[in-house]
Design goal:
By secondary structure, the chain is mainly α. The protein contains 8 helices and no strands.
Length: 230
């Protein structure tokens, strides 16, 4: 009996592909969902990393142009038609409202300061939505992937117990393949969840810093415009 059990253990294939194809359809679907989630987590991360890197470079370039001493009207004329960065879009939103508030006689329509601030706030809100889109998926994956993997594990272990009951053999060679398949689902859940949590925290922090920079610029720009009203 021991020799037969040893032979069964040696014949069992414990490679990842073998464990996947031996699993039940339910566990396979769980594994596929977790692998797709893991790939999507990495895709979002690389995409956001590139986006944030460009945003930081564009913000630094625009800040240098903004504080270079060039008249704001000339800078606006250069970037108004096709603003390329978030800083430029916030600037254009404020300057556009400022120019719309100028009357033919050169006077300003009352309440211009509040309208300029609201225009820039709307532009910043749009940039915030663009920067943070997709991060909710990272948060959701980080919170749910371990439990989805655990569901696959529970299902796989339940199948192993059913096989034990059907065969009447409780040897490790009989139950090990089913348990290994079940634990693979938990491993894939952690494989998706751990990077998702790490990247979500990092990217959320980067997005907050970028948005904070836009808000600081908007405040500084609003201060410059308010001097024209005094």
């Amino acid at each position: 009996m021991e020799a037969e059990t040893l032979g069964m253990a040696q014949e069992a294939d414990f490679t990842l592909l073998a464990l996947f194809f031996r699993a039940t359809l339910t566990v396979q679907l769980v594994m596929v969902a977790l692998m797709v989630a893991s790939v999507w987590v990495w895709a979002i991360t690389f995409s956001k990393y590139a986006l944030y890197r460009r945003a930081r470079g564009n913000a630094a370039a625009f800040d240098a142009a903004f504080w270079s001493g060039e008249p704001l009207d000339e800078l606006y004329d250069q970037v108004a038609d096709a603003p390329r960065s978030a800083s430029e879009r916030v600037f254009v939103a404020g300057m556009t409202e400022w120019r719309r508030s100028l009357r033919d006689d050169g006077a300003l329509i009352p309440g211009v300061q509040q309208r300029v601030d609201r225009s820039m706030d709307v532009a910043i809100a749009r940039e915030n939505e663009r920067l943070t889109s997709g991060l909710n998926f990272l948060a959701t994956t980080g919170a749910t992937a371990p439990f989805v993997g655990l569901f696959g594990t529970v299902w796989g272990i339940m199948r192993s117990f059913q096989e034990i009951a059907a065969s009447g053999n409780t040897s490790l060679a009989v139950v090990a393949p089913g348990i290994a398949e079940a634990l693979l689902a938990t491993g894939l859940g952690l494989l998706a969840a751990i990077p998702a949590v790490i990247f979500y925290n990092k990217l959320s922090s980067d997005a907050d810093r970028l948005i904070g920079g836009y808000e600081s610029f908007a405040d500084e720009f609003s201060t410059l415009l308010s001097r024209q009203l005094d």
